[in-house]
Structure formats: structure tokens, C-alpha cells
Amino acid sequence: MDADSRIVGREDVPEGGTVLFSVTNGDDSEQEAVLLDLADGVAAFENYCPHWQDVRLDTGSGATVRNDEIVCEKHGATFETDSGYCNFGPCEGAVLSEIDVRADDGAVYLTDDDYEFVSLGPAEDDDHGPDGDDSGRGNRSGGGRIGFGGV
Ligand code: FES
User: Is 50 part of any domain?
Assistant: First the structure.
């Protein structure tokens, strides 16, 4: 495996938790991804909710993971950790955008040809909201929102 694509040590991916990391797809902008420990490997998804794309699943302290599901704290949507499929909530049926990763020889590597690994942690150019207030509105502040008559 290419050392430049090494994300983190395998033992540093917490069981029942997530690791936040940043990637770029070749342009100048960075975007965030969440890395998850699965029973049979690892998985990663872009770090936003398909319901309101300006809401991050992991705001820096780990996404909520319960019963093999990632929980969006905004309106409670749940996503299967192995597929990203939303099985409950206002965006039911949507699927998180997957980023290919692989565990190998004690580490986790980015294996997605569409992305380059940048760093662990939040994206540098993610403004965390229009006022820099870490409100969960990142660089997707113009992102789409699926209609929702609730909260
Ligand atoms: S923003 Fe995630 S469920 Fe509404």
C-alpha cells in the first residue's frame, strides 16, 4: 500500500465510533469523511447527511453510532454502517456517499481513485458555518435539503 494513502492505524479506529479525515478530489477544496470500524473491516462515507447536506454527521468529536447504524443528530436519521443506506428518518432510502478504504497490515488506507488523502481531522477549508461557529454547517452551506415537514 502507498504510504501517502495511509489514513490511520487500524487499532486507532474505535469500535462503535468514527474517525474524521479529509480528502480532496483533485481540485483545491477539501472535504470530510467519516471512517468506521465494521465487524468485518472498515468503511468510509462523505461526512454529510443526505437530508440536509450542510449537516455533518461527525462535527469533530465522532459521529453517533448505535446498533451498527450512524445516527444523524439533527433529525434522527439512521444509516447502516456497512452500506450507508438510510433505513429510518426524513431521508429514508437515501444512501451516504461511500469512499473506498481498506484495512491492510495494521493500518487503514484510502483506496478510492477519486480521492487523495489530506489529513486526519476536519477539512482545512471547511468554515464550520457562515460565522465560523462550528454549527455543523460546513462547506456545503449551499447544499440541497430534502423537504421535511418536521423540526
Ligand atoms: S439533517 Fe440529518 S436527518 Fe435531517
Answer: yes
Q: How far is CA 122 from the centre of its chain?
A: 10
Domain span at residue 33? Answer: 3-62+95-120
- Cα 65 to ligand 1 centre (Å): 15
Q: Of all protein residues, whose CA lies closest to atom 1 belonging to ligand 1?
A: 52
Distance 9 CA to ligand 1 centre (A): 30
Determine, yes or no, domain membership for 129: no
Q: State pTM to two decimals.
A: 0.85
Would you state the pLDDT for residue 27?
81
Average pLDDT over residues 84-106: 97
CATH code of the domain containing 8? 2.102.10.10
The mean pLDDT value for 123-138 works out to 48
pLDDT grade for 133, boundaries at 50, 70 and 90? very low
Residue nearest to atom 4 of ligand 1 (CA): 75
